Amino acid sequence: MKKIFFAFFAATALVACKRGSDNVDTPTIPDDNILPKSFTTMSYEEDKHIDTTILTFNYNGNKVSNLERVSGDEKEKITFSYNGDFIISVQDKEDEYEFEYDSNGNLAKEIHTKKHNGNKNIFEITYTINGDIVNAINEVKDMENNGVVNHSSQESLTYTLDNHKQIIKSISNLKRSSVIRNTEDTYTYDNKNSVFKNIAGFKYLSYSNFLRNFIIPSSFNNVTYTYSKETITVLNDSNTEIHGKYENKYTYRYNNKGYPSEISSSYSSDDSTFEKDFDTKIEYNK
Question: How far apart (Å, rounded) are the C-alpha atoms in residues 43 and 112?
Answer without folding.
Answer: 25
